[in-house]
Give the backbone structure.
Amino acid sequence: MELAEKLEILADSAKYDVACTSSGVERAGRHGSLGSCSAAGICHSFTPDGRCVSLLKVLYSNACCYDCSYCVNRRTNDIPRATFTPRELAELTIGFYRRNYIEGLFLSSAVLGTPDRTMEAMISALRILREEYHFRGYIHAKAIPGADPLLVHQLGLLADRLSVNIELPSADSLHRLAPDKKRAAVLAPMRQIASETAQNRCELQRYHAAPQFAPAGQSTQMIIGASPESDRQILHLTESLYQKYSLKRVFFSAYLPVVQDSRLPALTTRPPLLREHRLYQADWLLRFYHFSAGELLNEDNPIFDPYLDPKCNWALLHPEYFPVEVNRASREELLRVPGIGPKSALRILRARKHQHRGLPELKRIGVVLKRAQYFITCDGYLGARGTRAEIAGALVDPKAFGVGVQQLSLDSFLPKALPDAAPALHQLTDQGMDPQKAAAELRQEAITCITRRM
Ligand code: SF4
C-alpha cells in the first residue's frame, strides 16, 4: 500500500479521538536538532463537526484485534486497514514538519495483535524521531491499556504527554460495550504515569539533567452519550480522576454514531454536543473555580440544565450565598459569582487595595455585569434589582439556542432528563420553522422554565 493511502486511512481513523490540546511544554530549538515546543500550543485544526484537532494526528495502525462496539476500527467492522512501519511514521512526521505543516505529533493506535506489540512499534517510531532525527517537537502518545509497565515507562521517556483513554464512564458500560477491555487495565497505567511523573519531578529538582518523563503530564478521554451514565456520575468520575491520578485534562467526546448496534444509540442520533459543552464548563469549574462535583449536581438533579451554564445554575439554586460584597469578598467567594472569572477576580483583589470598586470599574476590569450585577453589592449597594424573568433572561446561555448549534439530545437513556425541556432547535427547524424564529421561541420558553424554578 502506498504511504499516502496509509496516511489517508490512519488519519481518518484517528479523527474520533478528541484528546488533544495545547502542549504545555516549553522547549527551545537547538543546533543540530529539529523542532521546538511552545507552551502556548501546537498546531490545531478544526474538523467539520467543530472539534479541535492537532495536525498530524494519526493511528499507528487501525487493524484492531478488539471489538469495542462504539468504535469504527473494531475488528468486526469491514473497513480498509493499514499499519505504518516505525520508519514510515517517523519519516512522515519529519517530512510534514519540514514542510511546516505540523509542529507536533499525536500518536495513537488500535491494538495490533497485543498491547505489548503495539506499544513496542510506537516506541520504535518515537525512538527514530527523537534519537535519529533529534526531533524536539511536541509528542502526545497514547499508552495502550494492558501493556507491560516497562513499555509505558519507555513511552513516557519519549513523549511529552501520555494519555490512557478511560473510554466509558463506568466499568459496567465498558464490560458491555468493550468486552475485551478491563477497567483495571486502564487504571493501572494511569496510576503508573501519575507516580512516575511525581517521582521524575523530584529527580529533576536534584539532577537537572535527569531524563524527563512525560513532562506535560497525562490526560484521558471519555465518550459521552454511548452509555446510560448521568452527568453526575461522569462529573464525579472526572473529579476522582483529577484527584487520584493528577490528570492534566479529562476530555469528553460526544458519541458520534458510526456503527449500527443494538447496544448503542441509533445511527440517526445526533452527537450530544451541548451536553459535552456543559461537561467541559463543569470541568473548568472543578479545576479553576474551587467547585466540587457534589455542589454542581446531586441525586435530585443528575443532569445539567441545557439552558444554563453550570455556574449560573448553581447560583440560582443557592440564593443564600448572595449578594457577594465585591469590596470585601475573598477570591473563592468572588469566583462563585456568575460573570466573574479567575482573571477578573484577581483584578478585583488587586484593584481594591487602592480604591473601592463600583460597577463602572468592575466593567472595565472584565466582569460580565449583565450576569454579575444581580449577585453583587458594591459598598453595600446592590448591583441591580431585576424581576425573575429579567434575571433568567440575563443568565440563559445563548449557545443553547445558537442557530446551527446542535442541541442537547435528550437521549432515551436519560428518562429523568429535564421534564420541562423545550424541543431542540433542530426539531423545530426540521418542521420547517425559520431558524431565527425557532431560536427566539426556544429562548422564551427557556426563560419561562428557569423563572418557574427560581
Ligand atoms: S481497542 Fe477498541 S476503541 Fe481502540 S481501536 Fe480497537 S476497537 Fe477501537
Remarks:
- The first strand starts at residue 44 and ends at 46.
- Residues 183-206 form the longest helix (24 residues).
